[in-house]
Amino acid sequence: MAEFTGGCLCGAIRYKIDAPIAGLRACHCVNCQKSSGASGTVNAVVPSASFRLTKGETKKYDDSATRSGRTLSRHFCASCGSPIYSHRNPDPGFLVVRAGTLDDSSALRITGNIWTSTARPWAHIDPDTECHPENIPVPAPKP
Ligand SMILES: [Zn+2]
Ligand SMILES: [Zn+2]
User: Fold this and answer.
1) 68 CA from centroid of ligand 1 (Å)
2) Mean pLDDT taken over the chain
């Protein structure tokens, strides 16, 4: 049984995640602001192997990550535009799922913030969480 399920606004895309999610990470980089139309993105970092689309196919936009210039593939629903997940290319073994697409995230909290140096003045950042002015290398999830 999947530990988490989710999908896009119109229902064309559905997915499941067979892994626990320890905490959520908010990204305040300018690219996530443009992509989301909001203060940035809030994400669950999960092993790539644990994520599976159960309905539909995403369309992707190959973004160039802030500063590092690494290719970041941003996957979204071509029908309603909901951002679903992103991952570095080549796939480093984990991907970053937009937490707002989870069906139930009631047990999850934001535990860390990255790119706070470019956060919008109106973004809410809990000072009790881990904050990084730029990106941090995400440790590969344990198998
Ligand atoms: Zn959709
Ligand atoms: Zn970002």
Assistant:
1) 30
2) 93
